[in-house]
Amino acid sequence: MQWIYAASSIFRALETKELAMLQPLMLAALTYGTTHYQELFDELRRTFDL
User: Fold this and answer.
1) Left if phi > 0, otherwise alpha if psi is -120 to 50, otherwise beta: which for 42?
2) pTM of the full predicted structure?
3) CA proximity to 11, closest of 40, 41, 20
4) Distance between CA 47 and CA 41 in Å, rounded?
5) Can you give the three-state secondary structure of 7-41, one letter per residue?
6) Is pLDDT above 80 for 14?
7) Residue 2 clears pLDDT 90, i.e. is over it
8) pLDDT value at position 15?
């Protein structure tokens, strides 16, 4: 099931609306699962210096 979230996030990222970027982030978090989503957010913070 996680591959569905990952594939969906790729297509959603191609959308041009600003709010459309929230859905890929949510789908990526779902792909990581409830026990690992924090790792995704930590990596995003490091990568984008947030």
Assistant:
1) alpha
2) 0.57
3) 20
4) 10
5) HHHHHHHCCCCHHHHHHHHHHHHHHHCCCCHHHHH
6) no
7) no
8) 67
